[in-house]
Amino acid sequence: MGFENKTLTRFLDRLGRAGSACPRKVADGALAHARHHPAARIFCGHTHAAMHKREDGINYYNCGAWIDARPTYITIGEEGVQIHEYG
Question: Could you tell me which of 16, 24, 22, 25 has the C-alpha nearest to residue 67?
């Protein structure tokens, strides 16, 4: 699907937001999961809120969303994990 039909992508975005949990709740749940299954990093996405949170030595990353007005993505490389905005 391209970005030609902005009406459709906006509708899908609103639909996703209406049915998704609060980004902080997603982060808290993912961090609890990482504590239970010892992990240094945990990655999630599609909460429409790019986020990096460090808690109890665990790094939580959320890439946000690619259809928002300010789309974001994550890269992992020699510099570490980074959240970027398409620009």
Answer: 16
